[in-house]
Write a structure and sequence with these properties.
Layout (H helix, E strand, L loop, with lengths): L2 H4 L8 H14 L11 H13 L4 H18 L9 H6 L12 H10 L6 H9 L5 H5 L6 E2 L4 E4 L13 E4 L2 H10 L17 H12 L6 H14 L4 H8 L4 H8 L21
């Protein structure tokens, strides 16, 4: 049995991550790679196939990441004529927008306002920073309307990414959307609010309808974090809301949103009391 057939056994992560990456490997990489080599020409040809198939930039980036894992696992070495992955990335179309401005988000939400499923899902990303899996993992008793918070306790297929639950506040608009969409009195506490579906595909459709840059669901989470940090919210509070295990993760991703010149007025000596 060659390396290609054995490689999926080395993929680690959450069950859904393993399933998705294994499927991507078998469909888009394994059939086109020679078992005894992995050359720059092969990688360039792969990316061309992906582009011809109109795969999204996000999918192509994930496929390149899987290729890198395969190269490291197999012990192959890149040719010495430059950074192959960097050169291939230049072939990709422009990436989707990472976040939306407030005016763009307003247009997007207006386009989806009559969709009783997608509208609250969009708000859970933009106003609460939830991951897509966490949205589909929500149960009725996770929404505490009296306390004005949502308890994020699980993803769709297991624990949260950090492995720890968290609590995020509910905005007024999100609260109204949830009340309009769900019966929190008659429904069973353990009922899931949403059945899983391809939220990114539906989101792309609403982006086109609203005339705003196409964005992934993770981009809605990025939008929430960007707005929070730009408004001066403490990075520690943003970390807690996003569910990052370490503050360094929040700062690594969003450091440019916490910039600005430090106010040194705290160093000024207080005036002496004449009395």
């Amino acid at each position: 049995m060659d390396n290609k057939a054995l490689f999926p056994n080395s993929i680690i992560g959450r069950p859904e991550t393993v399933r998705v990456q294994t499927s991507m490997w078998r469909n888009w990489i394994e059939p086109f790679v020679e078992p005894a080599s992995f050359t720059a020409r092969e990688k360039t040809a792969l990316v061309k196939q992906w582009l011809d198939a109109k795969l999204s930039p996000v999918t192509i980036k994930m496929l390149l990441s899987i290729c890198k894992k395969y190269v490291e696992w197999s012990g192959y070495a890149y040719p010495a004529n430059g950074n192959i992955t960097r050169n291939i990335m230049r072939l990709q179309p422009a990436a989707r927008s990472k976040s939306l401005s407030k005016s763009e988000a307003k247009k997007l939400l207006k386009a989806a306002q009559y969709d009783k499923i997608m509208y609250p899902i969009l708000l859970l990303g933009i106003h609460a920073g939830l991951r897509k899996g966490e949205v589909f993992g929500l149960q009725r008793d996770d929404v505490d309307l009296l306390g004005g918070v949502i308890k994020v306790q699980r993803s769709w297929d297991g624990p949260t990414k950090s492995g720890r639950p968290r609590v995020v506040p509910i905005s007024r608009e999100l609260e109204q959307a949830l009340i309009s969409a769900f019966d929190f009195i008659q429904g069973r506490p353990v009922d899931r609010l949403f059945k899983p579906f391809d939220a990114n595909a539906r989101l792309a459709g609403y982006c086109h309808e609203a005339g705003v840059p196409e964005i992934t669901f993770h981009g809605l989470r990025h939008t929430f974090a960007t707005w929070a940090l730009e408004s001066g919210i403490s990075p520690k509070l943003v970390q807690d809301a996003l569910g990052h295990a370490h503050l360094s993760t929040t700062l690594d991703v969003y450091w440019d949103k916490t910039g600005g010149r430090m106010d040194l007025s705290f160093l000024e000596a207080e005036e002496e009391d004449p009395n």
